[in-house]
Records
---
Amino acid sequence: MSADELKAKIRDVPDWPEKGVIFRDIMPLLADHEALNETIDHIAAWAKPKKPDIVVGGEARGFFIGSAVAYSLGCGFVPARRPGKLPLATIGAEYALEYGTNALELQADAFEGGSRVLIHDDVLATGGTSKAMAGLVEQLGGDVVGMAFIIELDFLNGREQISDYDVFSLIHY
Amino acid sequence: MSADELKAKIRDVPDWPEKGVIFRDIMPLLADHEALNETIDHIAAWAKPKKPDIVVGGEARGFFIGSAVAYSLGCGFVPARRPGKLPLATIGAEYALEYGTNALELQADAFEGGSRVLIHDDVLATGGTSKAMAGLVEQLGGDVVGMAFIIELDFLNGREQISDYDVFSLIHY
């Protein structure tokens, strides 16, 4: 399946979660076994030459295929979670979103220093979430070898915020 | 890796998230590429003969490996989400937890009627979450062919609540 065929599985939801926003609903893509499989394979194929050890996915939508990408690559999976969701010592970051603000945490011993880390989220919008995740990974001594998304909203220019990194998005709007 | 070796990757956190609860922290298991791989393979091997079409995972911890199990089985993945997180028409259920209450929703067109569905969550505790997910799946005309967990807290007798279903847990406490 090409990126265009996968894009055809995504549903546009106007004025959700706020008026004026077109939400791209990936539920039909995830529920279609062939589209899910191809989405994971496309992202893993891009990431493989970067030899990641760990995939970090952001709560909650970055968990949808994060571990499947990790499984396909033979990596471990580390969830970046909302504040208060992870036990033991954590580090955290706040950041601005396309709509609102948010925060994420990693456990302080989430991976070994020097690990090669692939950042994953479902959508690259303003880039704020991914930049915050990369900052947390680097604070723990990880090396961000790439960032991979299912969708990129080109008109929000998120790439400008993460221009220091190697970025891949499967589907563009 | 045997179930005992995988269990050794899980960390006990006493008095979290509430006093008197021992939280079983699976983060070190997920972050270890070999342990993650084996956990997914064990669950997929159990589920495969049941020929599921869809894996349903519960927010948020049931997303950690839900799509990886789906990928391994060649299934689609459907996230059961917290209220207000899914666009378009949904159905919902409330249920009691080991600590507190909660609610989950599925999109009304999440899968086709007659689909064979594997329910997945990280932990089988009281069984309330899984029973609620199964009820939602059945409301949409799905056939629950099994329920698979990473961890089962045997002393909470969750299996009694879901005795109508075929249940697998990789690691027991």
---
Amino acid sequence: MSGKVLVLNGPNLNLLGTREPDVYGAETLDSIEANCRARAQGLDLELEFCQTNSEGQLVDWVQQARDTHDLLIVNAGAYTHTSVALLDALKAIALPVIEVHLSNIHQREEFRHHSYVSKVAVGMICGFGGFGYEMALESAAQLLTKK
Amino acid sequence: MSGKVLVLNGPNLNLLGTREPDVYGAETLDSIEANCRARAQGLDLELEFCQTNSEGQLVDWVQQARDTHDLLIVNAGAYTHTSVALLDALKAIALPVIEVHLSNIHQREEFRHHSYVSKVAVGMICGFGGFGYEMALESAAQLLTKK
Amino acid sequence: MSGKVLVLNGPNLNLLGTREPDVYGAETLDSIEANCRARAQGLDLELEFCQTNSEGQLVDWVQQARDTHDLLIVNAGAYTHTSVALLDALKAIALPVIEVHLSNIHQREEFRHHSYVSKVAVGMICGFGGFGYEMALESAAQLLTKK
Amino acid sequence: MSGKVLVLNGPNLNLLGTREPDVYGAETLDSIEANCRARAQGLDLELEFCQTNSEGQLVDWVQQARDTHDLLIVNAGAYTHTSVALLDALKAIALPVIEVHLSNIHQREEFRHHSYVSKVAVGMICGFGGFGYEMALESAAQLLTKK
Amino acid sequence: MSGKVLVLNGPNLNLLGTREPDVYGAETLDSIEANCRARAQGLDLELEFCQTNSEGQLVDWVQQARDTHDLLIVNAGAYTHTSVALLDALKAIALPVIEVHLSNIHQREEFRHHSYVSKVAVGMICGFGGFGYEMALESAAQLLTKK
Amino acid sequence: MSGKVLVLNGPNLNLLGTREPDVYGAETLDSIEANCRARAQGLDLELEFCQTNSEGQLVDWVQQARDTHDLLIVNAGAYTHTSVALLDALKAIALPVIEVHLSNIHQREEFRHHSYVSKVAVGMICGFGGFGYEMALESAAQLLTKK
Amino acid sequence: MSGKVLVLNGPNLNLLGTREPDVYGAETLDSIEANCRARAQGLDLELEFCQTNSEGQLVDWVQQARDTHDLLIVNAGAYTHTSVALLDALKAIALPVIEVHLSNIHQREEFRHHSYVSKVAVGMICGFGGFGYEMALESAAQLLTKK
Amino acid sequence: MSGKVLVLNGPNLNLLGTREPDVYGAETLDSIEANCRARAQGLDLELEFCQTNSEGQLVDWVQQARDTHDLLIVNAGAYTHTSVALLDALKAIALPVIEVHLSNIHQREEFRHHSYVSKVAVGMICGFGGFGYEMALESAAQLLTKK
Amino acid sequence: MSGKVLVLNGPNLNLLGTREPDVYGAETLDSIEANCRARAQGLDLELEFCQTNSEGQLVDWVQQARDTHDLLIVNAGAYTHTSVALLDALKAIALPVIEVHLSNIHQREEFRHHSYVSKVAVGMICGFGGFGYEMALESAAQLLTKK
Amino acid sequence: MSGKVLVLNGPNLNLLGTREPDVYGAETLDSIEANCRARAQGLDLELEFCQTNSEGQLVDWVQQARDTHDLLIVNAGAYTHTSVALLDALKAIALPVIEVHLSNIHQREEFRHHSYVSKVAVGMICGFGGFGYEMALESAAQLLTKK
Amino acid sequence: MSGKVLVLNGPNLNLLGTREPDVYGAETLDSIEANCRARAQGLDLELEFCQTNSEGQLVDWVQQARDTHDLLIVNAGAYTHTSVALLDALKAIALPVIEVHLSNIHQREEFRHHSYVSKVAVGMICGFGGFGYEMALESAAQLLTKK
Amino acid sequence: MSGKVLVLNGPNLNLLGTREPDVYGAETLDSIEANCRARAQGLDLELEFCQTNSEGQLVDWVQQARDTHDLLIVNAGAYTHTSVALLDALKAIALPVIEVHLSNIHQREEFRHHSYVSKVAVGMICGFGGFGYEMALESAAQLLTKK
């Protein structure tokens, strides 16, 4: 395997496909995970995929990833905009981070325009729905190769 | 029963009656729940009543209510002012929400004037202490009847 | 009678039922008054109900209420957001005030989020349409009993 | 007649011609009304023209116009910048509104740059002195024809 | 007589002596007027003294003063902070204006720190209770003498 | 001829009629020019009409107009809100400027509420679609006559 | 003597009469002092009058006044707007303070609208030139009598 | 061909590889174009690739693309943050837009955090250097297939 | 024992010594705890020391401390800046709070300058690394003695 | 001696014990100095202790300390919040600085929340009254030992 | 020659001498260029001098200067305040930049106080009219000598 | 002599050459004075050169210069950004002022971007180190000649 990637999903992403479909589309988190696994295989990446509604759990998972993974793909949902704790955890571990959002957050409410994750992420991909996760995997493969 | 109502209480409301009585009065959360149960019976509403200090737990409960309840009464305490995750959960489920606060939040510190819950709530009742929950139940009965 | 309540209505509320029905619903001010009178009777409250488009008239009525009423229910309409004179009048008389709004003002334009009335009101009820007046009467009865 | 137009003038416009002539010119409100009447006749419009220093009176007149006029030309003077009540009245009646100002308000004090009337007006004409009223009448004729 | 002075009092000043005595003291508007009349006599000034809760009435009185008085003493109460119409009226008439407040407005809520009247007043006297009116009369006498 | 008028049109106005018709209507810039030419003839005005997507080109044209025209009608499109260079050019030449916008810019996004052109324009006409250009010509004729 | 009054003058007031006469008038600080001495005698007040350009010196003088004077009249000049040290000194001693400014500071640059002295002063008198000092003495006599 | 894609590059991108390599890396715009052409061929996309330092030229190219292309990939460089004209052009043509930035703009100066292009773009990809263009092409292929 | 002290550590402090050593130094939380235990013994204080990444857990621990401890030393990490829930819990229990930060938060990003804990803390110690905890214990001993 | 420490006290601290005892306690600066001398002896530190009301004097003392002391303990009083000159002096000399405040400045007026001294201080201790100076000495001893 | 200097002039500077002479004086750009050429000769500097109204042209010229000049003197006129593209171009080439303005921009409208050019310029000279260019040349000679 | 020039230096400039050499360079104030004296002689200017850390002293010196000098060159150091007293002194004397800063203040902390001295200075020279003083002298000679 060329690298181990952890995909972290924040609050309410488990409702995907049922929640505000005009904003997020009809994909479910399961179908996104399935697409990611297929794509990861082609890129020779090992994938872990998880979701939580708890800020503290997100921080725990980020901390644990330091010893077990090579790169994080993070869609922190609402915690993107409010969690300094998540920012600190991401800074504390030295792994590259790719930020993903399903919708184009720059077109939504003002308080969604700011992202704490962006302060430590290599880059951001937003607005492409579940396909954005696959783009992130492509980019992850390229970043891990360059290292 | 004409409807099932979930009453969600956020952080520190379990301390009610012991905490800053000049702001919140001497009622306890238990006495409020008791009054609510009495009132709910008169209104033919089924009532669930719970409290947590955890933002993630609040989000979990909101998500679960989608399949089990008809309406939410939410006093999110401090998370009212900071939790985008709670806002997203409330938007994701399609149930009507009634926002309650014991004190008149418009008379307290500036950072308590803004409410994320208000962005999705049918209406807000604040400043009437524990009696505000009973008013919310009256309104819930009326809303569920209109439906 | 257990108490005398004055219900003050501010500018444009006389147009109710004809004005932006998607925001305010199809109730008229007359039907709200009728519902209030019925509810007041059950609560043993004496009710006066009036409306004006004039800020000065509102201030005059508030001042006069000092000697004639026990409690004010105030829906000041647009003057909620702009009238320091109304705030001063409400502070000057020592009566309890309950603030009512038909719509949830926290979901409307930014300049409607701030209320001068809130600075002196016991509490606020908003978003429940004309039913909010009835909730205010319930609360009035409870407040006047406690005194 | 092709339409009935109400021209509303707000506070202090009755002093026109005597008040700060470097800002407003030497025209009087009477001479503007005379020019308007001449122009209206040519456009086959029926004209009512009034002035008040009272915000409540302005709101009353707007409300009454709903049943008696087809279009409003509004120079609300100082209430342009402060009256949410006027905004609400103009929204409540469904008539087209043309906003007029004698001076170019964008060149005056900061607090005159914002207009509540603009939120509901078809358009704004400012900076052309009393002639702006005549331009508004031209536009009124065109708008009423299009209907 | 060396000059005619109009003393304008805005909303709620008629409640003086009964309203928030810790802020405004126990003087009534009548006792202030009496003191003013005594002081005016000594200064050879003719005095008119009036009060209203209506913004439009204040504007009307300011406009009328142009032909009947030499100087205005203005305590506009709450309209101090909100009335552009009053500012425009005071600018339109060419009379000197002395601004008076009973309390020191710079020590009260933020929204009372700004005064539209100050933009046209010769000077401001605040914080000296009813005695401030007498100080204003002293100053009026001096200003009218200098002319 | 009583005067030479230059009508300057800024970026994207060449797309008129095809672009966001719910905001700008179905008129094309050619039809507006045709209406303007007809109206100008009746007013004895000579008309030049041009459009560019380039800020520098707008500045060049304004500079050249100093020696060739008597008045400018300017619809600077997006440069209205961002171009200090255009403001400086308009100030540098001593010609009267009339500002026109098809839509009511006060009802659109916040960043469209501010206009650099307004700082030098005699007046602004907005919200009347292509007819606003004709109103500007009427006003131009009046202004050039007064000179 | 009914009381001892210290009149403190801040930076650049020694230039009075030579400095921006259109703002401050042609009085000198000496002539103001002379007028004050005359007025103080009539009021049975003992007067000390001093000026400095140094913030530290102002603080020293305020501290010393605690044991030697009954009331302070303070025109702190530029330090009005910038000196927290002066504010702290005035708070630390328990004497009443009357704030005086020659010009109406509310009509000057934005940074002159805020006063640290106002936070502790009984009241403010501004805009009456040197005569304002005499008004302050009148008020001082009244305040010291009331004590 | 499954679709025609126009890649627009704004000011200073022609200097790529020579300019601030710590921010943008050592790639040149030519090498990015070469990679894009290779990737486009694999995706069956026809590619046009251009660069300009002129805002007006960018607007012209966007307008022309309406009839010749199916999708735009836009790296507007500095105009991202300042050009309302570019925003209007992108809105006027009805084509999907993908926004690309070489660096993560959320980590740079405050004034680079805001993007006018984001208001109309399907999504944004930033922080992945020249590889971001290839990600954009992948996404373009997916978007054009879905249509 | 002269008192029982609870030392609460917030998110990511468990990573201490491995995380951004240029900001926080090479101490681990274990070595800080060991130093605290030694110091506490000398001061006759009983010590409990704990850490969590969860906001809700912090609130729970604070609530429980009400019955078991005499004083809290709180380093809430990132929740310092975002948690109103923590503030409310600390206010609700009546124990003295000492706020500690390893780094000088006033020298870091703007969003770290504000602390909700400061609103209820007796005092703050920041910038002294792990030694700050020992200073807090010294101060705790002194505070508990004074009681 | 292990090090020479200069303790600088800013304006009004000489009034300590007499000034606002509810904020600062009843300690005098002399008693604090005495406690500091006792503590310094135990820590083998040489102590100089001084106070001034003058910003310029503070800057002078800081400059002189460069050649005579090893560390500064600074309680700049009001100059904490306003003196860029003090900040520049502290930056210019290369000595470590410990910032002390008697009260918890984060709980006082908004303008006391910002500190220029914090920009160069190793750390801040506030809210512990005179005991904070002793804590600073403990920390000074530790810092000077580490060097 | 000791160095080649490019003097870039932005929009409307070609109108110099005819435009707002009270702000910019009666010099023309030609006379400034002549003075510069004379001064440059004395300093052994080779001079190129150009002007444009186009932002894109300015960027082009800056880019080309990288291979042909040693230092830039930039008076970007209005683009000083709005052009991020110019800032990026100046950063991209590694040449020293001296910023010049004819007027003192700090005394003009608020939006002229900010300069993007200042972010990369060695220094700024403003307020000295055309003579400022000569000062810049003196400074250029000194800077190029030091290299 | 063609004119007498006073060069005023504010706080901490006496430390020059020892203080933050990466910002201010290695020049000392003495070497700058020496260069100024040489340059002044060539320009037939008489020079006085002084420095102080005291705001009050700066104000005193400015006041005295009114009768003894023809022009001021002012580098007020930190007082540039905070001293309204200095601004008032400079306005009060009618002499031309040239503002100098060693560093480019627009590239430093936000609070150094604003200058009170700029409000009265003919012009500003910043970023050229000690050579900026010589440029100021050149400009002084030119200004005094023009008079």
---
Amino acid sequence: MSQSLQTLAESLLTGKRRALAKAITLVESSRTEDTARAQELLNIILPQTGKARRIGITGVPGVGKSTFIEAFGLMLIEQGLKVAVLAIDPSSERTGGSILGDKTRMLELSRSEAAFIRPSPAGKTLGGVARRTRETMLLCEAAGFDVVLVETVGVGQSETAVAAMVDFFLVLALAGAGDELQGMKRGIMELADAIAINKAEEPYLQAAERAAQQIRNALHFSAPKYDDWQVPVLLCSALTQSGLAEIWTMIQQFASERPERIRGLRRSQSVRWMQETVSDGLRRLVEKNEELRALRKDLEQQVFAEELPPTLAAMRFLEAFERRT
Amino acid sequence: MSQSLQTLAESLLTGKRRALAKAITLVESSRTEDTARAQELLNIILPQTGKARRIGITGVPGVGKSTFIEAFGLMLIEQGLKVAVLAIDPSSERTGGSILGDKTRMLELSRSEAAFIRPSPAGKTLGGVARRTRETMLLCEAAGFDVVLVETVGVGQSETAVAAMVDFFLVLALAGAGDELQGMKRGIMELADAIAINKAEEPYLQAAERAAQQIRNALHFSAPKYDDWQVPVLLCSALTQSGLAEIWTMIQQFASERPERIRGLRRSQSVRWMQETVSDGLRRLVEKNEELRALRKDLEQQVFAEELPPTLAAMRFLEAFERRT
């Protein structure tokens, strides 16, 4: 068993696509026997991960994400880099297919030997989908990819999930007809490390510049992620490919100007990921106990109906929990 | 024991200040024997809570919070209402005294029979301080207060804690010399149900109006708390008392225009409070076990050092936990 995992790992590390696909299938599997094997594989290849630049990209449908990712990806490939494109789309379980990571929308990129495009994994919960994508990212790094783009479509909390696994979170937006900003979901500003106004080509250039200024003013009021990084607002056109090189240069600058920045970020992301997984697991363990689950529901109902003070309800639950453990 | 609690409750419900002070001391106590009695008391008076308007007020030092609260409080009292002023200042443990809830800064208000001012409770953690303030608020309601103002100074996460226990969260700010907004901590915008620019009296009136417009534009990009409430940006002057009546009218409108709004908010606040208290309690129970604590620290260290994949680390911890319970 472990022998075949070792073989798979070695094959993966030489960059073989077949091995990568096999490994991803293992990581995406929900079968209990595969879960342990997937973690064992990740443990084996862990020292060979972390070598790519991890970039999250979001924007509502219509902002031109696919066009942007294709143009951006091809530009990186032209520079000799290998690019993986992953996606988080929690709705894919429901719709039976994701609009993200759709190769037909990035045809030229999908045909390149140096590119690897994977649609969003399915999953019952966002947490499950995020775990699969995150671990697929590690596999891609071990397989030698230099840049991993993680795309999300902005449904629910998927942006937060992507921001928690990447080095840099890029938000795409559009200038609307009246200069107002379009395509940027409210509340996304706080996650952004940069905002790019797409389709900034004539005759929309002036509108794009005005929208950019508007956003720069608004950024003044949002909580900054870093004390030493001011979120740039750039213009670009995926169609004419202008502004893309500047975006890549900016991302590289972000990564290199403070050596500890990315390292510290990744450490805290990993630790937080572990803590969240433990919290989720504890919650599930507690829920497995029929009595405790019924008690919790009953207490919550009493709190909801304002028949029991919240702290007292919590205390009763914790006492019952302690008695059973 | 329960007899004296019943007596205390009855005295509290008639509005006796002595009883209120005694009850608050009980709720603020960290002694184990007092914890259970405090919860019992809250359980007794719970049906008599919920009758006040709960308003959170924040703003950095210098914005004029004390002057505002005094002027606002006196205005409410003039309308025949009883007003309680509480505070959350997590630094009070360290400094040995809070700058909030300081009666010397609200002298006239503190002298009114219809007012009750209480400094921030001490506490080792923000959670502990928040619990005490929240439960003191319930006691004030049972004692017949019509409005409870909960003040916070904007240190760490104290605004989030206050926003989670009030009906309405008011943020105070100032117009700076160059029209830029001052005194509004970045990231606070998302918590606000209204923003009031204080000291909007000549010769600062125009600057205040420009700052207000700036904030209205920025609000466009922040995630709204409600689909059906647009966050107003108002001007006021605690000194000349202008704009205060408008603020009170607005808060009453917020409460009355959708009957379910406050009720639904309070229910979800109570349930979330219970869930957080349970999560904190579970975490503490797990930490009490020496072996598990040591294991968790060790696993986290390995994840931090990038020697172990986060999911695998979490799985190992959960397996160990299950074995011990």
